[in-house]
Amino acid sequence: MTAHSDETKQLRPGLWETVNERYPGSMITKSDFVPLASLRKPLSESRLTFVSSAGVQPVGTMPFDVVHPVGDYSFRRVPSDSNPSDLEIHQIKYPTNGATKDLNVIFPVERLRELATEGVIGGLTRNFFSFIGYNMDPERLERTLAEGIAEAVVADGADVALLAPA
Amino acid sequence: MSLQYLKEAVANNDTEKLIRYVRLHLGDGNEAAGRKEIDKAWTEALKLLLDVPETDREFILKTLEERDAASLAHLFFHLHFYFVKRSGEWIHDGTL
C-alpha cells in the first residue's frame, strides 16, 4: 500500500474492510488511470445532467428489480422537467423516508431547475438518469450500465454531470 | 460478493458461501437478519395455508410446467420479499 496524500486518502477508513466482510469479493480495484475531466466552459454556460443511484423513476415505468440477487443493470431516463409527484423510488437498500417526503433530498430535480433559472448553471439536459446501486457484477455494471448512461448523457448534450450515490 | 466469487463457489460446490450470500442479500448485509428473514417468509406462507383455502393449483402447475427455471428462480426471490412484506415486519430501509 502506498501513502496517500490528504486529497486522495480514504475518507472512511475501514469501509472497504467492512464491505468485504459483509460481501466478500465485492470490492474491486482498478489500476487504470482516469484523469479528471475539466470544465470546458463556465458552469453558468454549461448544460448539466444528473446521474443518481437512488432508484428514482417515472411513475408507471418498469420498477427497478430490487429483489434480484445479482442486481439490476438497467437505467431510467427521468425528464428533468418532472415534478416529484411524477416520480417514485424503487429501492430497498437505503432509507427512503426522507426522500418520500421530499424527493429533492435524494434527487434534486426542483433545486437544479431553480439553479438553472437563476443562471448559476447554464441549463439542464432533457433527461436525468437513475439506476440502483445494488449490483454484484462490477464488469457488467461498467460494460452495460455505465457505458449506457455515458452514451445517453453525451447524446443529451451534457457539458457537466453531477453524480450522486444514494 | 462479486459474481466471480459466487461462480467460483458454484464450481467448487461451496454451498456455504452461496447460502451465506443469500442470507446477506435478504438481510441487507446482516447474515443473522437474513436467516430470520427466510424464516419469516416461510412462516408467513405457512400461515396462509393452515385453513386449507382454495388455491389456484391449475395456475401453479401450469406456471411450473411452462416457465423456464430462471424465471421461476426470479419469482422465488420475489415471493420471499412478498411474504416478508405481507408479514408486516419490514426490516429494509426502502420500499419494493
Can you tell me about this structure?
The complex is a heterodimer of chains A (166) and B (96). With 166 residues, chain A is an alpha/beta fold. Chain A has helices spanning 15-22, 97-101, 109-118, 138-155, and strands at residues 47-52, 56-58, 76-79, 87-89, 123-124, 127-130, 160-164. The model of chain A is unreliable at 1-5 (pLDDT under 50). Chain A is built from four helices and seven strands; from the N terminus they run αββββααββαβ. Chain B contains five helices and no strands. Chain B is 72% helix and 0% strand. The model of chain B has no long low-confidence stretch (mean pLDDT 93). Chain B is globular. By secondary structure, chain B is mainly α. Classes of the chains: A alpha/beta (166), B mainly alpha (96). At the A-B interface, helix 4 of A face helix 1, helix 2 and helix 5 of B.
Main β-sheet of chain A: number of strands, strand sense, barrel status? 5 strands, mixed
End-to-end CA span of chain B: 22 Å
Structural class of chain A comes to alpha/beta
SS element count, helices of chain B: 5
What is the count of β-strands of chain A? 7
Structural class of chain B: mainly alpha
Brief digest:
The complex is a heterodimer of chains A (166) and B (96). Chain A has 166 residues and is of the alpha/beta class. Chain A has four helices and seven strands.
Main attributes of the structure:
heterodimer; A: 166 residues; alpha/beta; five-stranded mixed beta sheet; 4 helices; 7 strands; globular; disordered N terminus; B: 96 residues; mainly alpha; 5 helices
Topology (SSEs and partners):
The complex is a heterodimer of chains A (166) and B (96).
Chain A: H1 15-22, E1 47-52, E2 56-58, E3 76-79, E4 87-89, H2 97-101, H3 109-118, E5 123-124, E6 127-130, H4 138-155, E7 160-164
Parallel strand pairs in A: 1-5, 1-6, 1-7
Antiparallel strand pairs in A: 2-4, 3-6
Chain B: H1 3-11, H2 15-26, H3 31-49, H4 57-66, H5 69-87
